[in-house]
Write a structure and sequence with these properties.
The complex is a heterodimer.
Chain A (H helix, E strand, L loop, with lengths): L2 H24 L11 H12 L2 H34 L1 H16 L6 H8 L3 H25 L3 H9 L4 H38 L5 H10 L3 H30 L4
Helix pairs in contact in A: 2-10, 3-4, 3-6, 3-8, 5-6, 6-8, 7-8, 8-9, 8-10, 9-10
Chain B lengths: L2 H21 L11 H10 L1 H35 L1 H14 L8 H8 L3 H24 L4 H9 L4 H12 L1 H25 L5 H10 L3 H33 L17
Classes of the chains: A mainly alpha, B mainly alpha.
Chain lengths: 250, 261
């Protein structure tokens, strides 16, 4: 199949799904009180987005996520580099790190509330805890992906250590580091929203939870739609950058 | 000292600190109840924990059926049919970015706060990763097997049941491991958010009265279950690994996703 046909297939699929979402409540097959039609949810989302109170909640969630990633990214990268460069450290810590990487993080959320309350930094801390191991693993994988013969050739041609870091290591590592960043952002987003839904007075997660409790289905679906669109757009943007940085590998 | 010995020293050190720091008053007991206190709570309160775990696990079983069954089936179809793969796979991996946790209020509004909402949420939570990992694993099946089956006149249904599925068993097991972990956490997280029973509910209700030892004991139990499930699945995978290399073009790349945020 050519590219146009693939895109057409996706467009048809998306239109069909949204059409079903629209048709079920409109035709009375689903209760519109429980499933508001797509157009209603989308209109509510646009109307909510124009309101300062919702943008304030969105801003709180964004800040929590940005703070979490801003801490987890350098910390995780640094630890990952250490593990990848020192064989001894790797042999001691790799199994522990892998264990910490693979255990579920959400279950620790109540402990964060016991120690830090329900403020801004508690959510940031939980976000960092949920993402730092992903960054660490990606950073270690990124270093290990640098091909020794590339380094060897660069050295043979008299490249300085700075040049090797800048011209060999960085281009090799960048796509994998970006993949780590992308996963950190999407998992961090989930973590921050969960923390807000669990116990919070602000943020989009808090709003989503309270709309659900109060049966405000139009707003609940509008909120879910809005957050989904944001998550997909951010994810695809990072992925596009990733593809640009990795095109020479093929 | 060997790396292994150092590692175990570190682990032992962490456990000792867990006991000593709160006992010495260096860390408030509210933040970190001593290890022995936590364990003794799990032992003395085994009745309430056992009852809560029974509720949680029964819901995990049902959700596992939906999430892993559906995930493997859809994954096999999407990954196995070239056109579906081209059109759908990138769409699904884009959808993977959506924070599914925001769907739980939708399910509680639809089904109430009983077991249905938890099962629905955990099923959706476990479905996508299982499906993506199955779809990725299906592609690693040796194309020669498919070519042979086709040239001998196997119908698409025969090809699915006689070639694709048997060759996909290692992938399926990896999907089951990943999906199962997510389903367990999905049910517990749902219980922590809003519910009326289960281990997650017990953890949250202990948290609201600031009963740290009960919170820690509950978290520890959930972790043990998640880790135990993972180990059991790995063992099963290892047992199936002896012949699984035969039907595959290259090792599956299904293990790269972190289990959960």
């Amino acid at each position: 199949m050519n590219h146009a046909a693939v895109l057409a297939g996706r467009a048809v699929l998306a239109a069909a799904l949204l059409g079903i979402w629209e048709a079920l409540p409109r035709l009375g097959i689903a209760d519109p009180e429980l499933l508001p039609p797509f157009t209603v949810a989308a209109a509510t989302a646009l109307e909510m987005f124009a309101r300062p109170s919702l943008r304030a909640d969105l801003w709180v969630t964004t800040l929590e996520l940005l703070a979490a990633v801003a801490i987890a990214l350098p910390a995780g990268t640094l630890l990952g580099l250490l593990l990848a460069e020192s064989e001894r450290l790797a042999r001691i810590f790799d199994p522990l790190i892998f264990f910490l990487f693979s255990i579920p993080k959400s279950i620790f959320l109540p402990m964060f509330i016991l120690t830090m309350g329900i403020g801004f930094w508690q959510k940031v801390a939980f976000g960092v805890f949920s993402t730092v191991f992903i960054v660490l693993m990606s950073a270690a994988a990124a270093v290990r992906s640098v091909r020794p013969d590339h380094v060897f050739v660069a050295r043979a041609f008299g490249a300085s250590p700075v040049q090797i870091a800048w011209r060999v290591y960085l281009p090799s590592m960048l796509p994998i580091l970006l993949e780590g960043l992308r996963l950190a952002v999407i998992f961090g987003f989930t973590a921050v929203l969960l923390a807000e839904m669990y116990a919070s007075r602000t943020g989009m997660g808090h709003q989503i939870a309270s709309w659900g409790e109060n049966f405000m289905m139009d707003r609940l679906f509008a909120g879910v739609l809005l957050l989904s669109v944001i998550a997909i757009v951010v994810n695809e943007t990072i992925r596009a950058v990733e593809a640009r940085c990795g095109h020479w590998r093929q | 000292m060997s790396p292994r010995a150092i590692r175990w020293t570190i682990i032992a050190g962490v456990l000792v600190l867990w006991e000593v720091l709160p006992r010495a008053g260096l860390v408030p007991v509210l933040f970190l109840p001593p290890l022995t206190t936590t364990l003794s709570v799990a032992v003395t309160e085994w009745r309430s924990y056992g009852a809560a775990l029974a509720v949680t696990l029964s819901q995990v079983m049902v959700a596992l059926l939906f999430a892993v069954g559906g995930g493997i089936l859809v994954g096999a179809i999407v990954g196995g049919v070239a056109r579906m793969r081209q059109v759908l796979l990138p769409v699904f991996s884009s959808l993977y970015a959506v924070p599914l946790v925001v769907l739980y209020p939708v399910f509680t509004a639809w089904f109430g706060i009983g077991s249905e909402a938890k099962i629905a949420f955990a099923s959706v939570y476990g479905f996508f990763p299982t499906m993506l990992s199955t779809a990725a694993g299906i592609q690693t099946i040796d194309p020669n097997l498919m070519l042979t089956a086709r040239s001998m006149g196997a119908t698409p249904v025969q090809r699915l049941f006689r070639v694709i599925l048997p060759a996909a068993i290692p992938t399926v097991l990896a999907g089951l491991r990943l999906g199962g972990a997510l389903v367990i956490i999905g049910v517990v997280v749902a219980e922590m958010l809003i519910s009326s029973a289960g281990i997650g509910y017990l953890i949250t209700s202990s948290r609201t009265v600031l009963n740290s030892p009960h919170v820690f004991a509950g978290v520890l139990l959930v972790l043990l279950i998640a880790i135990g499930f993972d180990l059991a699945m790995r063992l099963l995978e290892k047992r199936c690994a002896a012949w699984s290399g035969a039907g595959r073009a290259r090792p599956g790349a299904s293990d790269v996703r972190p289990a959960e945020a």
